[in-house]
């Protein structure tokens, strides 16, 4: 449905549940730009009249859209139903950096460098990067943006003896592209695991959320084409703006 297409689209009981059809119609309108982030949707009574249904059916459709995180509701004098900011699908099934993930879905990635240091690696990092003790790592901490919105706090560590020159480079783009261009060491696969955490005071301030807000913590060990670890990372993701996505497949018969 193009933004100038006739609204509302036709719905029919012959095509399934009415409230699901309404939810799908509004979701498609959001996707196509008829309703944009922050727009206030028409009141329930008006939507009911547009679709020729009762308000309970519209209320069910809005509840479904809220579950999909496409809308949010506010109460009070300035309340209503509003189009939510987009949620970014973060695909953990195929390996790609944050910049490439956003490109695939038509979003613009950004980065603000918070800290770059070279220091002795702790025991966990030594294990992840398979380094001898003692070894130094380059640690890069960045705030990552999707379409200008802060969604991820990223901390990556790289073996300093191999990637020490990173600290002198422009780090506001894709780090993986830098590894490929300057070191011929683009990561090709990764081991990742996810755990729920709560935002500490600093992470909350940087990500623009309340302290103790639930976040997703993604740990990652990335490997180059030769199977050598090149990165140990820890990403804190806003759960209201990102959504981990995993494809599952039935194993091939042998």
Characterize the structure shown.
The protein has 254 residues and is an alpha+beta fold. The chain has 2 domains: 13-83, Arc Repressor Mutant, subunit A (Orthogonal Bundle), CATH 1.10.10.10; 88-245, Chorismate lyase-like (Chorismate lyase), CATH 3.40.1410. It is 28% helix and 31% strand. It has 8 helices and 10 strands. The chain has helices at residues 18-32, 44-51, 55-67, 98-104, 123-129, 160-163, 175-183, 201-207, and strands spanning 71-74, 80-83, 88-91, 109-120, 136-146, 149-159, 189-198, 214-223, 229-238, 242-245. The strands form 3 sheets. Strands 4-5-6-9-8-7 form a 6-stranded antiparallel β-sheet. Strands 1-2 form a two-stranded antiparallel sheet. It is elongated and about 70 Å long.
Secondary structure layout plus pairing:
Blueprint: H1 18-32, H2 44-51, H3 55-67, E1 71-74, E2 80-83, E3 88-91, H4 98-104, E4 109-120, H5 123-129, E5 136-146, E6 149-159, H6 160-163, H7 175-183, E7 189-198, H8 201-207, E8 214-223, E9 229-238, E10 242-245
Parallel strand pairs: 3-10
Antiparallel strand pairs: 1-2, 4-5, 5-6, 6-9, 7-8, 8-9
What name goes with the CATH superfamily of the largest domain? Chorismate lyase-like
Instruction: Using the coordinates above, name the CATH class of the largest domain.
Output: Alpha Beta
Order of helices and strands: HHHEEEHEHEEHHEHEEE
Question: What is the CATH topology assignment of the largest domain?
Answer: Chorismate lyase
Short description:
With 254 residues, this protein is of the alpha+beta class. Helices cover 28% and strands 31% of the residues.
């Amino acid at each position: 449905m193009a933004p100038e297409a006739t609204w509302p689209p036709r719905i029919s009981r012959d095509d399934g549940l009415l409230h699901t059809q309404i939810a799908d119609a509004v979701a498609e309108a959001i996707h196509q730009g008829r309703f944009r982030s922050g727009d206030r949707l028409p009141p329930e009574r008006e939507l009911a009249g547009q679709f020729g249904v009762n308000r309970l059916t519209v209320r069910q459709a809005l509840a479904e859209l809220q579950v999909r995180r496409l809308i949010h509701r506010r109460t009070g004098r300035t309340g209503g139903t509003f189009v939510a900011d987009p949620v970014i699908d973060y695909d953990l099934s195929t390996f790609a950096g944050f910049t490439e993930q956003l490109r695939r879905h038509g979003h613009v990635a950004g980065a603000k460098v918070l800290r770059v240091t070279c220091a002795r690696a702790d025991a966990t990092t030594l294990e992840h990067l398979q380094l001898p003790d003692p070894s130094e790592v380059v640690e890069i901490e960045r705030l990552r943006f999707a379409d200008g919105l802060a969604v991820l706090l990223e901390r990556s560590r790289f073996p300093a003896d191999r990637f020490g020159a990173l600290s002198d480079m422009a780090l506001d783009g894709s780090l993986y592209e830098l590894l490929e261009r300057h070191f011929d060491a683009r990561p090709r696969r990764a081991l990742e695991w996810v755990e729920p955490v709560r935002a500490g005071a600093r992470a909350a301030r940087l990500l623009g959320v309340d302290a103790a807000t639930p976040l997703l913590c993604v740990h990652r060990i990335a490997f180059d084409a030769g199977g050598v670890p090149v990165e140990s990372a820890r990403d804190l993701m806003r759960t209201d703006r990102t959504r981990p996505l995993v494809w599952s497949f039935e194993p091939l018969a042998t």
